[in-house]
Amino acid sequence: LWYEESLPAESILAGLVQCAGPYGVTGVSKAEVLSLLDHDQVLQMGGKATTGKGQVRMMFRKGADT
């Protein structure tokens, strides 16, 4: 047997994404990495994709430049 937990569909989870400098050995710039996050994305996280579980809408918004 196993144990499962589910969040209600209306749950809002928030966090920070930071890009501090060049990424990887190719020297991709910070701007190029952040350009991948300039639009909303729908992802499936975890199992049971066929039942609609784990559907997540990622919404990235620019913060203040420091």
Give a structural overview.
The structure is a single chain. The protein is mainly β. It contains 1 helix and 2 strands, in the order αββ. The chain has one helix spanning 30-35, and strands spanning 41-44, 55-58. Strands 1-2 form a two-stranded antiparallel ribbon. It is elongated and about 45 Å long.
Number of strands: 2
Relative strand content: 5-15%
Sum up the overall morphology in one term: elongated
Order of helices and strands: HEE
Could you name the ranges where pLDDT drops below 50 across 5 or more consecutive residues? Answer: none
Number of helical stretches of at least 4 residues: 1
Q: What distance lies between the first and last C-alpha atoms, to the nearest angstrom?
A: 49 Å
What does the radius of gyration come to? 16 Å
Which structural category fits the helices and strands?
mainly beta
Question: Helices, strands, pairings?
Answer:
Blueprint: H1 30-35, E1 41-44, E2 55-58
Concise summary:
By secondary structure, this protein is mainly beta. It has one helix at 30-35, and strands at 41-44, 55-58. The chain is built from 1 helix and 2 strands; from the N terminus they run H-E-E.
